[in-house]
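Dear colleague,

Following up on yesterday's call, I've attached the two folding results inline so they're easy to grep. Please treat them as preliminary; we haven't cross-checked anything against experimental data yet. The first protein's sequence and structure tokens come first.
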Amino acid sequence: MNRLPPHIGHMKQIFTPCVLCLTLALASPSPLLAQDAQTDREEGFSLMERGFRLLFDGLMQDMEPALDEMAKAMKDLEPMARQLAELVGDVQNYDPPERLDNGDIIIRRKIGAPPPPDLPAPDTNPPLDQKPEGQIEL
């Protein structure tokens, strides 16, 4: 079952009616735009501009909680992403990931790619409250 994150489903619910309204507004002839006077034309555009501004302000209010949540998630992932970038280097030096029959996923380095960057030195004084990495023999 391929479920979308909740903020994407909410965006679809908002985005579809907005696109429909925009399409209808641009496709239907407006009496304000049909008049020849320049002032009437400018007034029509300013009404449309205010309408779009109200529409997008409402969209931003609806999307703000999801965007805040996404920003927090990205901030939480930043240290791990930086560590991964140090280990990998340039991603163009790698082939696309492959999934093996046993479920493992491997990412092979391209033939002829420059050697990978050196591994960072291990931390000799890890914090005591941090769980050890790797396997522990019992």
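Below is the second protein, in the same order (sequence, then structure):
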Amino acid sequence: MKQPRPNTNARIGAALALFPLLLAASCVSESNAGGAATTLATAAIKPAAPATAEFGAPQPAHATYNCGQRGSLTIDNFRTSVRLVDPEGDNVELPASPATQQSRYGEAPYALVLDGNEALYMKNGKEPVTCNR
């Protein structure tokens, strides 16, 4: 008995229809790299925010953040880079990372995320510190 042969055009059409979905599913945001995978359904429902509006209004050129018992964090913000004095007294200069935005800064072994009145400061080998203006 001869088996019916599947329609080759239907297979090609299905493969072409699935290709954009597979391509979208393979994208991982920088903030999600190494973390739990975001489901395709969630990514389709939640549109990406533009990089300039990602963390609200621009930060002040000079600000001091209170880090609780750890001390204070002083930041001079030049938009494409920051110069800071961390709670341990280290002077650090960090470029924007990636260079096209103005809320995330980093260079090994340091990272800084500015979000409204909060600053999240990370130093390799140390506990991350959340500081408030």
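For the second protein, one point worth flagging: The chain is about 20% helix and 30% strand.

Best wishes,
A.L.
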